[in-house]
Each structure stands twice: as structure tokens, then as C-alpha cells.
Amino acid sequence: MNIVDLPREVSTYQLFINKNNYKTLRDYMWSEDPVPAKLKVNQKQYDVGVAYRGYHIRKLKKKSLRLSIHPPKLFMGAREYHLNAEYLDPSMIRSKLSFDFFKDIGNLAPASEYILLKLNGSTLGLYLQLESVDDLFLKKRGLQAGNIFYASNDDANFSLITPENKIKHALEAGYSLKIGLKEDYRYIRELIYKINTVPQSDFRNEISNLIDVNKFLLWLVGIVCMQNYDGFIQNYALYRSAASGLFEIIPWDYDATWGRDIHGQVMEYDYVPIKGYNTLISRLIDVPEFRQMYKSLLETILETKFNASYLEPHILSLQSMIRPYILQEPYKSKDISSFDMETEYMIQFINNRRAYLKNHLVDLN
Length: 365
Prior knowledge:
36% of the residues lie in helices and 20% in strands. It is an alpha+beta fold.
């Protein structure tokens, strides 16, 4: 079993925010400006900033948070963390399972671990902590320095038009620059322009000079298996290595997976086609060599990693690890039966999705 090892226990984070700052946080929940706070973990204290994060999750009772560590200090080697509420996922393990799966098949993905969060002494609940995808993310993995762009909304669909079929106001629409200079947006502009304008006869060579095709196809295998509908046009970051000049894609926000949508409702196992969807995928799959590369990668993962016998032990280990903390959850403890039953649903989804994908491998011939 090569899937990511689990920690033996869940750390407790004590967050302290004074009354006025907490009122500001609540009253201006759409603000990206953090309020000052203190974070205490393992008897060590840090000055931090706290802001809400995400979109639809901000409207819910349990909200996701962004923690920024005041410089020059770092917290566990990072200056920023994201605490995901996982409120709409009955299992609370879909994101964690997704990132573990991505790493297991050879993709870049943020480190993720569960923490029990307390605010001013009261338990807020169990959260999934994600590391920020930034320069320190690259350094930890021994990767070359470069640019990082966040796909901030669904205009990041690799197309010249929006999902609403309107012409984009700029080629870089949908992206925000996390690491780099403003002029580095030229790399995104070049990428989007060439994806949409290079003739098919030249596309294989041109795109190979812009993206790491094998890594991109591995990401496609992952997202198609776990069926993240939104992840094709947002919920990802792009890392461009300054050394190679190639883009690589990094997944982000994967709670709407493994048979559930962004609202926590059932998403049938055959909702996302085997070829996925966005302009870049369509053009890659149209190249016979790349289509066969994708098919070969997918066949291998279906046989070795994306199957219930391989994933079920990890799913049950995750459930067992966090269950005692779910019982402390002010939001989920009263419906522990739904939590207990969700892993069975996820395993059935894996069986159904795997069968669907195996039956549709002929679509890649």
C-alpha cells in the first residue's frame, strides 16, 4: 500500500481573537484582509492573521479560514495555511483522499492534515489544513523557482471565451498571480493564445514547449477518476518552472469529489466523461500520441490504484482516525450515522466509476 501514511493523532490548534476583531471578521466576511489573532500549538504561540476563505462556504455556519503567519516567523515551514471546513462533505475525507490519491499517482498536491480548531476556548470543529501553494511549496519539494498562478474563477478554462460564451476581456482572465511579477502574466497569455490558435499540425510540438504533457495527463487521470466537475476550469494552480519554461498543474479544493457535488448532493458516477472537459484537454486528446499516453496512464491507474481493494483500507483508516473528533463537532456530531454510512457510498462510487471508465476506454482508440 503506497498511499500516503496517516499521522497517529490530530493536533489541537488554539486560536485567540479579541472581541472587536472577531466582530470585524464576522461583519466583513467577504473581506480578504485578515484580522490579528494569536495561534497556540504545542505550547508555542504565533502572531497570525485570520480571514475567511472560499466562496459558497462563507455563507454556511462552519466557514473555512486562511491563516497567515506574521513574518519573519514560519509555522511548520510555511507562512500561510488554509483551514478547510469540509462542511458539505458528509464524510469529511474527500479532500484528504483526493490529495493523497494525486500524490500517490505522481502529481504535485498540497500537504493536508486534520486539526481540531478551538476559538477562544470553544471548539469550532475538525478542519483539514492545507499548505499554501507558493515559493515555499516549491522549495520543500526541491523544485526550481518559478511562477505560480491561481485559477481564481471559472474563466480559467483555457479558452478565449468564458463558460457563459462571452469573449474574455483578457487572455489571463480567471488567473491571479501568487508568485512572480506583474509582467509574468505574459506566460499565461502565451499559453492561452497558443492553445487556441496553433494549427493542429503544429500543436504537438508547440504545446510540448509550454506544458509538461505527461504531468498534465496524470492530473487528468486523477480528476477524471475522482470526478471533480469544477476542477477542469478552476480549483487548480499552475506552476511554471523558470528552468524548463514548462507549466505543471496542481489541484486545489477537492471536497466535491468521489460521488458528491459542491453542495454535498449525489453526483452520479457517469456525470463526467472519460475525456473530461476544457479546451486544452480537447486539443491534447485530439493528438493521437497524447491520447494513447492518456489511455495507457488511465489503464494502469485503474488496475493498480483506482479500485476499491486498494483505496478502501485508506478510506476506512481516515474515517477511523477522525471519528472521535467528529463527535466533538458542534455541526456534525448530531448526525454521526450519516458520517458512518458515507464510506460505504464512496466505495460503491469507486466500483461504479471504475467500471464506467473501463467500459469507455474504447472512446480513446
